[in-house]
Amino acid sequence: MARLFIFGIGGTGSRVLKALTLLLATGVDCNGFEIVPIFIDPHKDFPEFKDCRELISLYADVRRQAYPNFRPADRAFFKTPILSLNDIIKEGFTKGFDFDERIDDTFGHFLGLDLLEKGDINRDLIELLYSERNLNTPLSVGFKGNPNIGSVVLNKFDEASWYTTFQKIFSEGDQIFIVSSIFGGTGAAGFPLLVKNLRESDNKYIKNAPIGALPVMPYFKLTDPEEDADHRDIDSNSFFTKTKSALSYYEKHLTGVNSLYYLADLHEQSRPYKNDEKLQENKAHLIELIGASAILDFCHQSDKTPQQSQYLQYTPGENSSPMHFFNIGNKLRNQIYLEMVNFYIFSRVHPSFKSHSDATFIKNGGFDAQFFRSDAVITIEKFINVFFLKWIKELDENDRRFSPLNLDIPDDRFHKLIVGNIIKEKKNFFTNNKLDSSNYINSMETYRNTVADIADESKFSRYLVLSQQAIEKVNKDKFKIQTN
Question: How far apart are CA 388 and CA 396, in angstroms?
């Protein structure tokens, strides 16, 4: 099976990979690829980075327990494998998805400045190129919006053991995608360096592999930095200047990328993010979801001619707020609409399934109280409650709102769930179109026999596959959602 190696560089790389993981949980299609995320970020304590690692590990745990012996079809929840390098080589790495090392030196120490005497011409040159503040920057917190620092530090990653291993395991049919911002430090520096190293690889499959990339341009603002604060190096007023510089460089020097997806949001935030990572609570953003959809699009591209680039950009159906399934554009809607509705409803009706111990499908399917206390069920509940529902809520609350679902409706009003596709409660005197959890409970029994061939010891598999099929059937019938 072909693999897509996704390099998430810096904070934006983590946030887009987070959105992709949550979409994959809903069952979106990535054309049969196995996903192998690789993070490049020296800032190991950054909350978003740690959050994303935990999410992906949790996804992998759910899928491992859900489909131990088979790969589900169609839009099954968690159908796409997410693998780490350790899953592929089986030895040599600790469990997880983060392999590059934390750097606890300052930039000056990294350059060996302390080994050079005063008056040494090399020391003079370094002090000419970099300010005292640059040289005293601790690398453990990233590059603080300074690609001139990041390009030096990251230029050695091709010597790391994880990169050597990546080169060894990359084989025919595998592909590569890179996600980074180009208005900060880590991403702006890491993106062109990574492309250069890939195209100069000794592995012929890497050298000629289809490469897609998402260089994300500014999509948020920060409060103005305080002069005496630790975080004073990052000024969002310079984001566009840095972006223009990066684009100018890429135009002249960046080659070897087959598909470049450019993405930005000029929407003016009314509430800029706090310019202090310790106090920042950056809510999930629509741009990150759209960025994840670029990866899905790349998976389905058939024309990826080596040494020939195509440039792509996203345009919504209309530039309005809030955004929802019917104004985000047809292509993006077709990628995520039914799958997101299915999984959201699963997150809402799963507690009802648990509480209806007398339901026919519960008794006939063996989904007793012990099953609902199993490690697999506890793991997916954590995935839903800690990550998925929070993500949906944050998308709805951000300045650039993505509000496809009416999140506050009770379980007996699911017919009012989808913004832009509300089902009238009464069609006529004899027909009631009301939709509630009972519709899904009944559908679970109706379709229970379709998963009878899944072994008894894979009860969690049966439950997950049955839930997706039963929920989708109701949603297609009631909401008239068409699929490709």
Answer: 13
